[in-house]
Write a structure and sequence with these properties.
The protein is an alpha/beta fold and about 550 residues long. It has 3 domains: about 30-120 and about 265-325, Periplasmic binding protein-like II (D-Maltodextrin-Binding Protein, domain 2, 3-Layer(aba) Sandwich); about 120-265 and about 350-370, Periplasmic binding protein-like II (D-Maltodextrin-Binding Protein, domain 2), CATH 3.40.190; about 370-550, von Willebrand factor, type A domain (Rossmann fold, 3-Layer(aba) Sandwich), CATH 3.40.50.410. The protein has helices spanning about 5-25, 40-55, 75-80, 100-105, 130-135, 145-150, 165-180, 185-190, 195-205, 210, 215-225, 235-245, 280-295, 295-305, 315-320, 355-370, 390-405, 430-440, 450-465, 490-500, 520-530, 540-550, and strands at about 30-35, 60, 65-70, 95, 110-115, 120-130, 155-160, 230-235, 255, 265, 270, 325, 375-380, 410-415, 420-430, 470-480, 505-515, 535. Strand 14 and strand 15 form a beta hairpin.
Length: about 550
Amino acid sequence: MRRGSIFVIIFILVAGGIVGASFFLRAQPPLEITVAVSPLASDWVRAAVDAFNATDPVVNATRRVRFSVETVDDLNVWLEDGRGWTQSSHPDAWIPAASFSVAFAREARMPLTIVEPALARTLLVWGGFSDRIEAVLGSETPLDWEAVAGAAARARLAFFHPARTAAGLAVLLSSAGEFYETTRPGDAELSSPDYRGWLRPVIEAVPNFNTLGTSVAETLAARGPSIGEIGLLPESDWLRNLRGQLVQAAGPLRLNYPAYSLVFEFPLARWSDPQEEDPDRRAGVEALGSWLLSPEQQAAAAQVFVSYVLTEPVQELIMSEGFRPANPDVELGFPFVLENGVDPTQPRTVLDVPAPEVIAAVQQSWAFVKKQADILLLIDISGSMQTDDKIGQAIAAAEAFLNAMESNNRIGLVVFNDGIETRVPLGNVETVYEQMRSHIRSLRANGGTELYAAIVNTVNELNTTDATDRIRAIVLLSDGADTGSRGYTLNDAINAIESTRDSLNPVIVIPVAYGRDADVNALNAIARASNTRVQSGDAQSILAVLEIISSYF
């Protein structure tokens, strides 16, 4: 046989092997890799992951991979109530808001390894409506921590919740840096009575963290200065939600950068337990990190998938979402321009990445400076609560909730069936504890359900309190099925809740639903009126429910 013929045969065999391997590879189901991401970066990460999936990525030359995204705030990862990650339940990769979150998770014995230290960046920035800033601070006063702390008594401030979000926790870190004029505040400084006394009026100037919702800038854009006049939020949130108001002629927003900036870097970390290490998963996560940092990769995707046209590189996409690119080769451009009130030269002085013990001290400080609460337990004792021992579950939950209450909160008990009765008027927990426990344990279910009338009545009762520096809340335990004859409707209940929205301390209602037959639609509508969520009241999840409820206060 001629040598040329041999070469042709070999070429055909090799090509056939390659084609066969390609068909075999594509016939195999892809390895599913889950990426958890901070809510601050969720939009651009989802868009980038979709683009990466479109390239049909292969790792280790033999394994197709596909990524999915789930949103989780950094602080939820640290919780010890079952919602944090465990050896048997965890994502493959994590993009938190800040690198200190990875360090804190490691302290909680989570085997996380940083793949890329930064995928994007954003800073905490002071901002507000210029006319309100002038009214609160004066026309010549700079917008900074010192001025805001001095004017806290006459201002409506807006932050993310410090006990539920990384962005809110960062506000406390920023305040400590400013108070001590240092890039490295320690746990001893954060525990100082002087610092906590200085910070408390600032926190009390936030009318209601829950009303601000999960996207503070979006809430400010929708409701304006009635919900908050001045805020300390991520730069990306200002740019994404309020960019139009940054440049408008009448009453524009004004931005100012703190003297000590905290930078969110959005690192990429992977779960790296040696006992369950999967080389394909590891390679997949590392490939994703390279993709997110590369400004050329989207063009490569367009070449592979003609139908999927991507005209901008990933880092340009990130920048269009209001984040500063992490890749130094990508030039900072729009919307980071002076016309938007943005200072492209920031940050100048950056807070050091806090150690886990500093984070722990920040969380302890929050317990000292946060607003205290006036809480009415509103319990359904109608006949329908007898089914499946719903009343027994509600009694157990109410007593557990009472036992978990901080002593400086105030609590009371209202029950309803055909009638509505205040069994224990609002009082300090220590004062009314025994009375509350006795009444809770003696509850019996019978009669109809005046749910909507009870909500209206209880909102009105809280409206009579004269304390403007306390959170006002109703924890509703019910199956949600109104059968009352007083003529009150769901809209009446919603209107009563919403009528308090513009007060310094609006009333929030947190419904806990009991039974498979619960009227979830009605309870969801009630929850939405005050930006809360319906919680399931089953006995198995009561500890998690208590943790969620307590986070509102």
